[in-house]
């Protein structure tokens, strides 16, 4: 029952929460960078940054590289560096040794082109960093490099990387994490497009945990994906794992597509690897798809489609150099599609073989299963890991599809909606959860939600006003309308203060 005492305690709680909000957010600064703006370059702003600050960089302008970010945000008040398009063009950071160096924690960086760094276009040695809606290209050495010392979790989303890498030791994307400084760090890469590598592997990672979701990766000089042990770390510090879900791997050369375990420069990951609902496009004469080199613990592969363009069998795993951490082979797999006559692990179950997976339009890279495709409704729902070797916190079901050779920054246009059983591969069938239908469904849902909100406002204007401010959501166990009202009032005051400061 709500009484005066409860309301008083709730109001005090609301004041306390709003005070925290005021102290941490209301006095953050928005810096504007660009021609005619208060700051001419990102370099001049970098040393001024504090938690919660926002930097807006004008687009259609090129700025000098060697930008170093050394001031950290906090987990609840990240620093945002945002490119603002002008004439449809992002701002460009160009040149220098490291065009953009993120040497601090808790950042969101979005909306840039980063080009030309002689050593690295992007150098990551922070923690809790997100880079999104960014193109990294024309890098004569590394495209995006994560340091072995000091680096923690990094998320890349809606990022395009191309024309980067050199030889066999410089890569378009090369990640590492410091397992002592940032134990449990995650490298997550989602909705990205990596292509036209000039050297190395398209995506190479030594991170403790790798989450490779919904990407289109093609055109590597060597391998499209390599997940190996960190440099300079003892094998018993941590196990390195990889969850690889919903990607397209298009091999254009004849090398292996994936390598797991080690690159022979250090130890082994002894890790667990999970491949679910990926599509592999392979050329003629390509080597086996996945090379396991030195120590891993387990590998499982479910609902994947493997196709050699032009026809022909494939070999899935190369096991001649593997050292099983468990002392035995730990392999699992269900409902994968392979060409007739392919060499597959004996532990796989429900493998489907055929001559053609029947994509909608392979020549146009529309890899959705056609109406008569053997991939349709043929996947396994929530397939289990090998007994005794569960993959930790897996992405149970793919929720999106990868962008088809381009970046799509609206995840709502990439939703994956199964009709019936899930299809094999990275895409659902034609007309079933495709891009257009998914977008239309979400739009219809938004219209219905808005109509419902308007009807509720007509019926209960006070309640609708609370909902608009997000106040009603705060009322729950241990919270009261008094607390929510006071918190909402002070939050509104904070917003007014923020607008005045920004102006």
Question: Describe it for me?
Answer:
With 503 residues, this protein is of the alpha/beta class. It is built from 5 helices and 33 strands. It has a 29-stranded parallel β-sheet that branches. Strands 30-31 form a two-stranded parallel sheet. 46% of the residues are buried. The model is unreliable at 1-23 and 432-503 (pLDDT under 50).
Distance from N terminus to C terminus (CA atoms, Å) equals 44 Å
Mind telling me the C-alpha Rg?
25 Å
Indicate the low-confidence ranges by residue numbers: 1-23, 432-503
Overall geometric form:
globular
Helix content: 10-25%
Our estimate of the beta-strand percent is 25-35%
Give the number of DSSP strands. Answer: 33
Counted by DSSP, the helix tally is 5
Main sheet: strands, sense, barrel: 29 strands, parallel
Structural class based on helices, strands and sheet pairing: alpha/beta
Could you tell me the mean pLDDT? 85
Spell out the key features of this protein.
503 residues, alpha/beta, 5 helices, 33 strands, disordered N terminus, disordered C terminus
């Amino acid at each position: 029952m709500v009484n005066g005492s409860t309301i008083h305690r709730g109001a005090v709680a609301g004041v306390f929460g709003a005070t925290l909000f005021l102290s941490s957010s209301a006095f953050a600064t928005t810096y504007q960078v660009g021609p005619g703006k208060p700051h001419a370059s990102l370099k001049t702003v970098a040393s001024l940054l504090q938690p919660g600050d926002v930097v807006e960089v004008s687009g259609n302008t090129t700025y000098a590289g060697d930008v170093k970010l050394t001031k950290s945000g906090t987990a609840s008040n990240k620093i945002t560096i945002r490119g603002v398009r002008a004439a449809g063009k992002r701002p460009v950071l160009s040149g220098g040794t490291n065009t953009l160096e993120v040497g601090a924690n808790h950042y969101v960086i979005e909306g840039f082109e980063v080009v030309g760094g002689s050593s690295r276009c992007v150098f990551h040695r922070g923690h809790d960093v997100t880079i999104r809606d960014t193109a990294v290209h024309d890098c004569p050495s590394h495209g995006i490099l994560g340091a072995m010392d000091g680096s923690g979790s990094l998320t890349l989303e809606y990022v395009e990387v191309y024309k980067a890498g050199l030889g066999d030791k410089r890569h378009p994307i090369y990640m590492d994490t410091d397992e002592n400084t940032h134990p449990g760090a995650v490298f997550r890469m989602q909705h990205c497009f990596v292509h036209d590598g000039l050297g190395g592997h398209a995506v190479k990672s030594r991170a403790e945990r790798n989450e490779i979701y919904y990407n289109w990766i093609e055109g590597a000089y060597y391998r499209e994906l390599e997940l190996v042990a960190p440099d300079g770390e003892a094998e018993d510090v941590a196990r390195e794992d990889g969850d690889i879900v919903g990607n397209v791997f298009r091999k254009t050369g004849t090398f292996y597509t994936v390598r797991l375990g080690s690159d022979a420069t250090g130890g082994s990951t002894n890790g667990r690897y999970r491949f679910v609902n990926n599509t592999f496009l392979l050329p003629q004469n390509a080597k086996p798809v996945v090379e396991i080199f030195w120590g891993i613990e387990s590998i499982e592969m479910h609902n994947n489609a493997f196709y050699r363009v032009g026809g022909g069998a494939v070999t899935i795993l190369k096991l001649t150099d593997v050292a099983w951490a468990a002392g035995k082979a730990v392999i699992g797999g269900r409902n994968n599609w392979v060409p007739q006559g392919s060499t597959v692990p004996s532990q796989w179950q429900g493998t489907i073989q055929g001559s053609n997976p029947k994509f909608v339009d392979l020549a146009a890279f529309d890899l959705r299963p056609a109406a008569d495709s053997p991939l349709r409704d043929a996947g396994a729902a929530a397939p289990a890991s090998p007994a005794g070797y569960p993959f930790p916190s897996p992405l149970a079901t793919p929720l999106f599809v990868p962008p088809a050779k381009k970046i799509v920054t609206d995840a709502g246009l990439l939703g994956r909606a199964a009709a019936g059983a899930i299809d094999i591969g990275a895409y659902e069938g034609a007309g079933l959860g495709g891009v257009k239908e998914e977008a239309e469904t979400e739009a219809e849902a938004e219209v219905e939600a808005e109509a419902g909100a308007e009807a509720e406002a007509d019926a209960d204007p006070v309640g609708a006003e609370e909902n608009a401010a997000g106040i009603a959501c705060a009322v729950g166990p241990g919270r009261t309308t008094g607390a929510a009202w006071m918190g909402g009032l002070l939050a509104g005051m904070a917003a007014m203060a923020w607008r005045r400061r920004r102006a």
